Automatic annotation (TrEMBL):
GO terms for cellular component: cytoplasm. Keywords: ATP-binding, Cytoplasm, Kinase, Nucleotide-binding, Transferase. It comes from Rhizobium setariae. It holds the Pfam family Cytidylate_kin. InterPro entries: Cytidylate_kin, Cytidylate_kinase_dom, P-loop_NTPase. It is found in: Cytoplasm. The lineage of its organism: Bacteria, Pseudomonadati, Pseudomonadota, Alphaproteobacteria, Hyphomicrobiales. One of its GO terms (molecular function) is dCMP kinase activity. The keyword Cytoplasm applies. The gene is cmk. HAMAP family: Cytidyl_kinase_type1. This is Cytidylate kinase. Residues 4-194 form the Cytidylate kinase domain. Gene3D superfamilies: P-loop containing nucleotide triphosphate hydrolases (3.40.50.300). The keyword Cytoplasm applies.
Length: 207
């Protein structure tokens, strides 16, 4: 049971990097952001308020990890709702249990999120913290939205990124921060290929 934990803020390149690493090592991959997004979508669809913790926990326990698909969970409003419900401790506990079960079920896993190295898998064999400046992350997110035919402006995207960072970093339960022994990768001025090589060199040294 070998776990590679990858944490960091939104739009730092964590998702792409996690997939590349999972492919390179032949590991299973769980994007834990999707677990929060799936609960958020179910709550939006049912018209539930985002502070209904009892129902959120019930939905969390019914989620099928294998069926999670970013394409149906990528909407901006789902991401916003996910970061709002993610402050509820009992919901986090239910999702963390499912995420740990995933890591135990498979011989090798890459888990990416906000609290993998600190809370979900503190004993992970390798821990990475992937970040980039808010401006760089906002400009990547902006390009992606425009590329997909969306209509927005850079300042709005930057304000969203800052709001999301504040919610993730300032919450009382499992705030986003690098684990003590995490290897830091700042992708602000790095290609994804260079980030992958840096990650692989670190992982090979510690596995
Ligand atoms: O990674 P993604 O942006 O899809 O995650 C959506 C939201 O879910 C994040 O903004 C964060 O608030 C929450 N999340 C979390 N812990 C994780 C993964 C995601 O709190 N391990």
């Amino acid at each position: 049971m070998t776990v590679i934990a990858i944490d960091g803020p939104a739009a730092a390149g964590k998702g792409t990097l996690s997939r590349l690493i999972a492919d390179a090592y032949g590991f299973h991959h769980l994007d834990t952001g999707l677990t929060y997004r799936a609960v958020a979508k179910a709550m939006i669809d049912a018209g539930l308020p985002f502070d209904n913790e009892a129902v959120a926990v019930r939905i969390a326990r019914s989620i099928e990890l294998a069926g999670l698909d970013r394409t149906v969970l990528s909407a901006h409003e789902i991401g916003e709702a996910a970061s709002k419900i993610a402050v509820m401790p009992k919901l986090r506990k239910a999702l963390v249990e499912a995420q740990r079960a995933f890591s135990r079920r498979n011989p090798g896993t890459v888990l990416d999120g906000r609290d993998i190295g600190t809370v979900v898998c503190p004993d992970a064999a390798a821990k990475l913290y992937v970040t980039a400046s808010p401006e760089v992350r906002a400009s990547r997110r902006y390009e992606e939205i425009v590329h997909n035919g969306g209509d927005t402006d850079f300042e709005t995207v930057l304000a969203d990124i800052r709001k999301r960072d504040a919610r993730d970093m300032d919450r009382a339960d499992s705030p986003l921060k690098p684990a003590d022994n995490a290897y830091l990768i700042d992708t602000s001025e790095m290609s994804i290929e260079a980030a992958f090589q840096a990650a692989k060199t670190h992982i090979d040294a510690v596995l």
